[in-house]
Amino acid sequence: MAGRRRPPRQLRRLLPLLVISVTLQITLVVVALSLLIGVPAGYALARRDFPGKRVVMFLLLLPVLLPPITYGIPLATVLYKVHLAGTMTGVIAANLVPALPFVILVMAPFVEQIDTNLESAARMCGARTRQVFARVLVPLLLPGILAAGILVLVRTVAMFELTFLVADADSQTLIVALYSAAFTPGIRAAQAIDAMAVIYMALSALLLLIALMFVNPTQIVAQVREAPGR
Q1: Are the beta carbons of 20 and 174 closer than 8 angstroms?
Q2: Which of 40, 141, 160, 210 is deepest in the core (most CB within 10 A)?
Q3: pLDDT, tens only, 44-61
Q4: Domain 14-223 carries which CATH code?
C-alpha cells in the first residue's frame, strides 16, 4: 500500500497547531521583554521628575495611539535592511515597538499609588535597591504587571499590520495566517476559517475583560496631563 501523500509545504505551515505554536512563542517573548524593561522604566518615569518629561510621555504615546501602518512601513524597511524580516526575531522586534511604551504607560499609575515611605522604610532596614524592588514593589505592583502582561498579549495576538509586514510563512501569527487562508483559494475550508476566527475573537475578548478588571484605560491619558511641563 502506497504511503500517505504529504501535504504541500505551504499548507503544512498553515496548520493550526504550528501557527498557534508560533503565535505563542512570539507573544510570550514580547510579553516577557516588555515587562522586564517596561516595569523598571515605568517606575523611573513615575518616581523621577526631569526636564522634558512631558515630551517623553508624548513620545511613548505615539506608537500606542498612531495607526501601526504609519510607522510599520519604515520599521519594516529597517528590518529588511538588517536581514531580520521574515524571522521570528524580526516579528518580535516589530511588536515590541508599541508593546514596550504601552507597558510603561500602564505601570506608571500603579507605581504612583505606592507610598514612598514603604521604600524608605525598607532601605532603612538595610535592603538594597534590588531587594526593595523584588520584595516590596513587585508584590504591590503584581495587579498592574498582570494587567499589562495580558493587555500586551492581546495586542500582540491582534497586531496584524506590523506582523504582516515583516513575517513570512514560518513566522506568521494566527491573525496573519487567518488572513492568508481567507484570501488564498484552496488553503483552508471556509468553515474552518470561520471557526478559527471565532476562537480567536473569543479568547481575545476574554483576556481583555480580565485585564480591564485591574487597569483603567483613562489612567494612561491622565499620565500625560499630570506630567510636569518642563
Answers
A1: yes
A2: 141
A3: 888 888 888 888 888 888
A4: 1.10.3720.10
